[in-house]
Design brief:
The complex is a heterodimer of chains A (609) and B (157).
Chain A lengths: L1 H27 L28 H7 L3 H29 L10 H36 L7 H9 L1 H8 L34 H30 L12 H32 L11 H34 L8 H14 L15 H29 L8 H24 L1 H7 L3 H31 L5 H28 L13 H31 L19 H12 L21 H6 L15
Helix pairs in contact in A: 3-4, 3-5, 3-16, 4-7, 4-9, 4-14, 5-7, 6-7, 7-8, 8-9, 8-10, 9-10, 9-11, 9-14, 10-11, 11-12, 12-14, 12-15, 14-15, 15-16
Chain B lengths: L1 H4 L2 H26 L9 H34 L30 H6 L4 H5 L36
Helix pairs in contact in B: 2-3
The chains are: A mainly alpha (609), B mainly alpha (157).
């Protein structure tokens, strides 16, 4: 009784303390002044947030709350993470050229495998989408900025420490090793129990870093929901909201429900590891509890990553097909349907855990149902292109590559959703091939399509067309070689996550590595192209470099770009800028030589395919 | 009002969500009738049915809300091509079902329906069906003019 009274007293005391803290904070700071609406903004009108004069140099980037600057920082962050994650997998693919452990140790392979997955999903996938959405959503919907610009900045700045924590085990810090739990962090391995080395603090740092990125994504999602719902221009209604904004709105809803769950589960795991709690101990099925919690987040995460790329592809394919998206509302409704159903399929990742067959059957049924809205989209994309005036520019090629890879990745996924097939193929390379067709073949392809498409808008210059196409062809060939080889390895029974394998799998592994090396060459070409073009590419002098006006497909962000070009004031630098939006107006001297081989100005040769 | 929003065209748009709803409902029925693992009514069977019924209800609600929001705005406000509403000079869409056609906005057809703005003002969508032939593949297009063609004037440049 005394103990209960003591607890009660402590609870009351804690409550009083919290009320006191809240009251004190309210006194010392006028928090309402931090929100646009609180500073005199009105619904749908001026937000009170304006970017008057930006400081120069590093200070600008450290202090900016401009959605475009933050978008660029997200993009740079995502690209750096992509290069690091890519380097990690290339070491793994080099190791897999040979059946034995010849290049790196098994434990280092496991570390790379874990970090590659987490880096690509959380440090590249989500941020690169945030890059496009931050930069372009306000422009597309006619908003001044994001609804909460400071929260937007905070959300980004949580990411770099998150990455450092996730990669901490690789740094030369004594007694710290990288996590080797795979990105799924299954208990009991990730709980650090048993005779392995996963009780190391490197795993704790990785979990905390992952938590930071989750907090960042959640803050961003709240911002996007508020922005799209409340900051739209008057004429942007639900009936004509662009498809990219729809997918970001849906994605943000998914993040809002999924990521807090991941955060909670991660903290429970950290508590299990360090403070003796028993959430995930084996005895009462706790290890399976982790899988349920993880996949309740993890499957929506798949759609968090794929819906915005679908939006990008739905936005871009019509621009280069000379017609509006076929069945626009089908795509919108199916996006929303995917959003809801994605929370009802999580246990299809757990068919092999001994789960009750009745539950398993239900998850299979919903998994089959969710395939419909995804398939509908592919038909929409194909029918949009059907009989259209196709212009096979680099962004369009990447979009077509997306559709192709998404179909293969999607169909292989439908087979995995079938219980009998899954029980055979579970934990084999078939699964690896399936989801790489989606995450690399589709999501990354759409990301690069968007990078090429909006490169002129962000940089004010045009990339080199030939190099862009070389990049595409190396990637479409490379990705299909690699991921088909993985699917075949899975049919052969090759288990995932192994540094070594039986000699009979050597040929297919070598083929997979060959495709990966092709992709590396493509990636290096892309990097060279973008860096060189950023500094020396032909200056874009027209707000319509893709010739969209001709097809009445000119969207809001290019209108903004055009306005920017027309109102830019020459500051005395040596570079001329267009002031009249002319076609091939005052292009710098370096442009003249480059126009033979480059996309420049009005994507002049986009029709020559 | 609801039946005005959920007219034939809107329901047709929503069929994309009716299909997964039907698939889920089908399995609810199959598992109830065939009952392959026995024990209908025990806890796990109820959970299994709940795993189907809860997504079904959630999707049905979302389909209703989104259909109401999109079709409602479509019928009461000026509809521009998606993503192009903020571009000055973009003519509003005059066809409710313009899918698959070229993106060229026919100025003529805009003018054709210019005499029906009053119906929209009073909240009644002006529905004009015609046998106008689609440009490329000769399909017959059903055209609904759902908004006033003078809506352009409402937009701030």
């Amino acid at each position: 009784m005394a103990a209960v009274n003591g607890e009660l007293a402590l609870t009351v005391l804690m409550g009083l303390l919290l009320v006191g803290v809240a009251a004190w904070l309210a006194r010392v700071e006028n928090w309402r002044s931090y929100t646009p609406l609180g500073s005199g903004g009105v619904y749908g009108g001026e937000t009170g947030q304006a970017h008057h004069e930006k400081p120069s140099g590093l200070t600008r980037w450290l202090t900016t709350v401009d959605h475009k600057d933050i978008g660029i920082m997200y993009g740079l962050y995502g690209v750096i993470a992509f290069l690091i994650g890519g380097a990690m997998v290339m070491v793994m693919r080099a190791e897999l050229l040979d059946p034995g452990a010849t290049l790196i140790s098994n434990t280092f392979y496991n570390s790379l495998l874990t970090s590659h997955g987490i880096t690509m999903l959380f440090l590249f996938g989500t941020p690169i989408i945030a890059a496009f959405s931050n930069y372009f959503i306000p422009l597309l919907i006619g908003a001044d900025d994001m609804a909460f610009p400071r929260i937007n900045a905070i959300a980004f700045w949580l990411l770099p420490p998150g990455a450092l924590l996730i990669w901490a085990g690789f740094f030369p810090i004594p007694n710290l090793i990288p996590a080797q739990t795979a990105w799924t962090m299954y208990t009991p391995l990730s709980a650090g129990v048993g005779g392995g080395n996963q009780a190391n603090a490197g795993v704790d740092l990785m979990l905390l870093g992952l938590h930071l990125t989750g907090v960042s994504a959640t803050m961003g999602s709240i911002n996007f929901i508020a922005t799209i719902i409340t900051e739209r221009a008057e004429e942007v209604t639900w009936a004509n909201l662009d498809i990219f904004s729809w997918t970001i709105l849906t994605q943000s809803g998914l993040i809002l429900f999924a990521f807090p769950l991941l955060g909670s589960a991660l903290l429970m795991l950290v508590l299990d590891r360090n403070f003796g709690t028993t959430f995930f101990v084996n005895d009462a099925g706790g290890a399976i509890l982790w899988q349920h919690l993880f996949w309740f987040f993890g499957h929506p995460e798949v759609y968090i990553l794929v819906l915005p790329p679908m939006g990008i592809v739905s936005l871009l394919i019509p621009r280069f097909s000379g017609r509006r998206l076929f069945g626009f509302k089908f795509v919108v409704y199916s996006t929303l349907a995917i959003g809801v159903l994605s929370f009802g399929v999580w246990a299809h990742h757990m068919f092999a855990t001994g789960i009750d067959p009745r539950l398993r059957a239900s998850f299979m049924a919903v998994s089959m149902a969710i395939a419909i809205p995804s398939a509908v989209k592919t038909f929409n994309w194909m029918t949009t292109m059907w009989n259209g005036k196709l212009r096979l520019t680099t962004p369009m090629l990447f979009c077509i590559g997306f559709v192709q890879n998404f179909i293969i990745g999607g169909i292989t996924g439908v087979f995995l959703a079938s219980i009998p097939v899954d029980l055979v193929l579970h934990d084999t390379y078939y699964v690896v091939g399936h989801f790489h067709f989606i995450v690399m073949g589709a999501i990354a392809f759409a990301g690069f399509a968007a990078m090429y498409y909006w490169f002129p808008l962000v940089s004010g210059r045009m990339y080199q067309r030939t190099l862009g196409k070389a990049h595409f062809w190396l990637w479409i060939v490379g990705s299909n070689i690699t991921f088909f080889a993985m699917v075949l390895l899975g049919y052969g029974g090759m288990p995932r996550r192994y540094a070594t394998y039986l000699p009979q799998f050597a040929t297919l592994h070598q083929i997979a590595s060959l495709g990966a090396f092709l992709m590396v060459i493509g990636g290096l070409i892309w990097l060279y192209n973008f860096v060189v073009s950023y500094f020396e590419g032909p200056v874009v002098t027209d707000g319509d470099p893709w010739n969209l006006k001709e097809y009445n497909l000119y969207t809001g962000e290019w209108e903004w770009f055009d306005r920017k070009l027309k109102t830019t004031i020459t500051d005395g630098g040596d570079e001329e800028v267009a002031t009249d939006g002319g076609l091939h107006g005052p292009v710098g001297a370096e442009t003249a030589d480059a126009t033979d081989s480059d996309d420049s100005g009005r994507a002049m040769d986009a029709n020559d395919e | 009002m609801a039946n005005k929003i959920f007219d034939k065209e809107t329901l047709l748009d929503l069929t994309v969500n009716f299909v997964p709803l039907f698939i889920i409902l089908f399995f609810v029925g199959v598992f109830a009738v065939l009952n392959p693992w026995g024990g209908l009514g025990d806890f796990l069977s109820i959970v299994a049915q709940g795993l189907l019924i809860i997504p079904f209800i959630a999707l049905a609600i979302l389909t209703y809300i989104s259909g109401k929001a999109i079709a409602g705005d479509e019928k009461t406000k000026t509809v521009f091509p998606p993503g192009q509403a903020t571009v000055p000079g973009t003519p509003p869409l005059t066809h409710d079902e313009d899918d698959g056609e070229t993106a060229e906005l026919e100025g003529d057809s805009t003018a054709e329906h210019a005499d029906e703005p009053a119906a929209v003002e009073s909240g009644e969508p002006a529905v004009v069906e015609s046998d106008e032939t689609a440009e490329e593949d000769g399909e017959t297009a059903q055209i609904e003019a759902t908004e006033s063609t003078d809506g352009d004037g409402d937009r701030s440049a």
